[in-house]
Amino acid sequence: MELSREIKITPIKVNGSRTELNVIEIEVSHDKGGYNMFTGEQRRTGIICSIRPMGRHDGCCSTIIDGKTEHMGFYTFLVPCGRKSPKKLEMVANEILPLSEKIVEMFLEGQYQAIANMMTSAVRAINL
Q1: CA 39 vs CA 15, 27, 55, 113: distances in Å
Q2: How does pLDDT run across 81-128, given as a tens digit for each residue?
Q3: C-alpha radius of gyration, the chain, whole number
Q4: Distance between CA 58 and CA 113 in Å, rounded?
Q5: How many whole angstroms separate alpha carbon 65 and alpha carbon 34?
């Protein structure tokens, strides 16, 4: 894993055709927080985990945006963290990495809230 602004867990291939979802990217990163002008929500500062479906083919990578719920990604707030901490990012990513196969299965079944609960409880166990 590379320590930078975010830690990308190796994308996991999913069976699909050329025009369908074929990769799910799991990324642990630091969010500076702030006010979202589109949704009106206030985002907290801390470590988040984003899960995004992607389409990879012919050397290109694209996020799939087609309005279908099963193709939309989401993020989960995991740990409050005022400043970006590479050490904390790595610790959180190491907790999420073993869950990646299970996350993909649950994502494809549409169990988004269950994924968020599973990741939050796994990270809570390391007491950051």
Answers
A1: 33, 22, 26, 19
A2: 888 888 999 899 899 988 988 988 888 888 889 999 999 999 988 876
A3: 15
A4: 33
A5: 24
Helix and strand totals (H; E) in the chain: 3, 7
Q: What are phi and psi of 108, to 5 degrees?
A: -70, -25
- Are 108 and 100 a contacting pair, CB within 8 Å? no
- Return the SS3 of 48: strand
CA distances from 34 to 40, 73, 94 (A): 10, 20, 27
Contacts (Cβ under 8 Å, ≥6 apart) of 127: none
Is 0.90 topped by the overall pTM? no
